[in-house]
Design a protein that fits this description.
Elements: H1 2-8, H2 13-27, H3 32-46, E1 51-58, E2 61-69, E3 74-82, H4 90-98, E4 102-104, H5 114-121, E5 125-133, E6 136-145, H6 153-204, H7 209-224, E7 228-235, E8 238-243, E9 253-255, H8 258-266, E10 270-273, H9 285-288, E11 293-301, E12 304-313, H10 321-380, H11 389-419, E13 428-431, H12 432-449, E14 453-456, E15 463-466, H13 468-484, E16 491-499, E17 502-509, H14 516-519, H15 532-536, H16 543-553, E18 557-564, E19 568-576
Parallel strand pairs: 14-16
Antiparallel strand pairs: 1-2, 1-6, 2-3, 4-5, 5-6, 7-8, 7-12, 8-9, 10-11, 11-12, 13-15, 16-17, 17-19, 18-19
Helix pairs in contact: 1-6, 2-3, 2-6, 3-6, 6-7, 6-10, 7-10, 10-11, 11-16, 12-13, 13-16
The chain binds adenosine-5'-diphosphate.
């Protein structure tokens, strides 16, 4: 209170106390209205005036904020006047120019605005106090008395103090208000950024690109308050729509307008009015017609603009800067997604190329293998003359190995077709009992060699929607494994049961089982178990990989249901059931 103390010297104690209290009251609030009300109320009483009026000075304007009558009524006015208007009031002019209080008799009635004339008619004495901050008048307080009692020395000290405190309090209140507004704007920006982060998380949890982009667009439009939106990639001076929330227009080509091109060059979002958006291709004008405003943000990755995110608003209201900033966040996210999508597409193409290569290579391999196999068979049958005993053994081994190589080539071919998405199952109703019976018949010769006990359990009589040949292949693989991976004559049980919309076919054995570590990898390509017995048996590690792929291709699945080393394993094939 250093400011308050010096002018108070020489004041009667009572007045001093009252003034300090007034100062505290006035400065005690940060709400500008509250501050104005307190200045007027406390000031009017302190200087024994009949009326007090507070005005703000904003640029060249006077805003009459409020007026207070001694009777206790406070009126908020809010009327604006040009500062020139006060030219005719010398007291006001003097106070504002000198930044010092001015005192005098009545105000010039004939110069006053008509709405003030009546109030001014009673006025006999006036005090005009400039409210000063930073060497400038930011407002003024006018106190008036209806009696011919001039503002005396004591009053003037109090008024000078009041003017200083009021100037500060008003300024603080305004600053606080501006600070609050700025904070609110910052909060809004933070909320929008938060929305962008949420969107990123949400978007990242979607698996398919079209869903991901659709999600992104929805969130971006909601965040900036747009009614329509699209995401496009740039291709040779045009944009090609990659995604819209409804999927409409995808693949259409749009020219780039010069203003958008300029924005793209600077990496900034560009706002366009309906009049400026003239680039709809012929026949597509109706697409942009509902929108009055457009906001287009470039999608930039690593300094390269790869696409655009466009927003349309039906109302003719500009997008606010926070919205533009939010859109920038979304476009960064969109750019990353688009680039990832491209990388994925490239990887898919590479995978496809690899599968095609594999398929051609295997085809090339099969032809000589067939020829070799044929000659070996003929030689063993004596077509080329008597085969000496020692050579027969060699030829038999060569024939076995050639058959293994042919089997491998056939499997690799299936792998190539499966991975190259060139395998289309021929799906029709298939009786599971029938398919199992046929597979068991095919397995019988091998089962007899290992003295296996193979049983078909009486299960549900079920029909699946599947490719008969592929189901046969999967069952052959499972039975073959069950017969192979056993160190004593195995018992194998095959069962089938309905499970809601699916049919489960199980193949259970009591063989060597699969260790927990191996359980996690046996479905991978070329993966074989680590049990020493596995290495002794012929195999290439493709059977389960292929079988699972084929099952999935038919809308089913293949799983290892359970396995215990030394006790056996159960595999379950699930396929779509025919509705009964
Ligand atoms: P392959 O039989 O040619 O090795 P698979 O993909 O059919 O290839 O099987 C992968 C591995 O899974 C086998 O090497 C074996 O270790 C294990 N396996 C598969 N079926 C069984 C089974 N019924 N019992 C024990 N191990 C099995």
């Amino acid at each position: 209170m250093a400011l308050a103390r010096s002018p108070l010297q020489g004041q009667p104690q009572e007045d001093g106390g009252e003034l300090v209290q007034m100062a505290l009251d006035v400065a005690g609030s940060l709400d500008p209205r509250e501050v104005i009300a307190r200045i007027l109320e406390r000031g009017t009483h302190a200087v024994r005036a009949d009326r007090g009026t507070l005005s703000s000075l904003v640029d060249d304007q006077v805003v009459v904020e409020a007026t207070y009558g001694r009777g206790g009524e406070l009126t908020w006015v809010g009327q604006r006047y040009s500062l020139d208007y006060f030219e005719g009031q010398p007291l006001v002019k003097q106070a504002i120019e000198s930044l010092q209080p001015a005192f005098g008799g009545r105000l010039a009635l004939d110069q006053a605005a008509p709405e003030f004339r009546q109030a001014l008619a009673n006025v006999r004495q006036v005090a005009v106090l400039p409210l000063v901050h930073g060497g400038k008048a930011i407002g003024m307080l006018v106190f008036s008395r209806y009696e011919e009692k001039p503002f005396a020395g004591d009053d003037r000290v109090a008024l000078t103090l009041l003017s200083a405190i009021s100037g500060l309090a008003l300024r603080n209140a305004r600053l606080y208000e501006e600070g609050e507004a700025a904070r609110q704007r910052a909060d809004e920006t933070a909320a929008r950024l938060r929305a962008a982060v949420d969107a990123a998380e949400d978007v990242a949890s979607q698996v398919r690109l079209d869903q991901v982009l659709g999600r992104l667009l929805e969130r971006a439009a909601a965040s900036v308050g747009a009614d329509g939106t699209s995401l496009a990639r740039l291709e040779g001076g045009e944009m090609v729509i990659e995604s819209t929330p409804t999927g409409e227009l995808v693949g259409t080509r749009w020219p780039l307008m010069p203003k958008v091109l300029a924005g793209v060059a600077t990496g900034r979002a560009v706002e366009l009015s309906a009049a400026e958006y003239t680039g709809a291709p012929p026949g597509m004008e109706s697409v942009v017609q509902p929108y009055q405003r457009f906001l287009v943000a470039p999608l930039v990755v690593g300094g390269e603009t790869i696409g655009l995110l466009a927003m349309g608003r039906k109302a003719d209201e500009p997008f606010d800067p926070a919205a533009v900033q939010a859109l920038q966040q979304f476009s960064t996210l969109g750019a990353l997604l688009l680039r990832n999508a491209r990388l994925i597409a490239q990887a898919r193409d590479a995978e496809q190329a690899k599968s095609e290569f594999m398929s051609i290579a295997v085809h090339e391999l099969r032809a000589p293998l067939t020829v070799t196999g044929g000659y070996l068979a003929m030689a063993l049958e004596g077509d080329f003359g008597e085969v000496p005993k020692a050579l027969r053994h060699v030829l038999e081994t060569a024939q076995r190995k050639t058959e293994e190589a042919k089997a491998l080539a056939a499997e690799l071919l299936t792998v190539a077709r499966l991975e190259g998405k060139a395998l289309t199952p021929n799906v029709k109703p298939v009786s599971v009992a029938e398919a199992v019976r046929e597979a068991l018949a095919r397995a019988r010769p091998r089962a007899e060699i290992v003295q296996a006990n193979v049983q078909m359990e009486p299960g549900d009589d079920v029909t699946v929607l599947a490719d008969e040949a592929l189901v046969g292949k999967i069952l052959d693989n499972l039975l073959n494994n069950a017969l192979t991976y056993a160190d004593r004559p195995p018992t194998i049980r095959v069962g089938a049961s309905r499970e809601g919309e699916q049919v489960a076919v199980s193949v259970a054995d009591d063989g060597i089982g699969i260790s927990p570590q191996d359980q996690g990898r046996i479905f991978a390509r070329f993966a074989r178990g680590t049990d020493p017995l596995v290495a002794e048996k012929p195999g290439n590690g493709l059977g389960l990989y292929l079988s699972r792929g084929l099952a999935e291709q038919m809308g089913g699945s293949l799983q290892l249901q359970s396995s215990h080393p030394g006790k056996g394993s159960t595999f379950v094939l699930r396929l779509p059931a025919v509705a009964s």
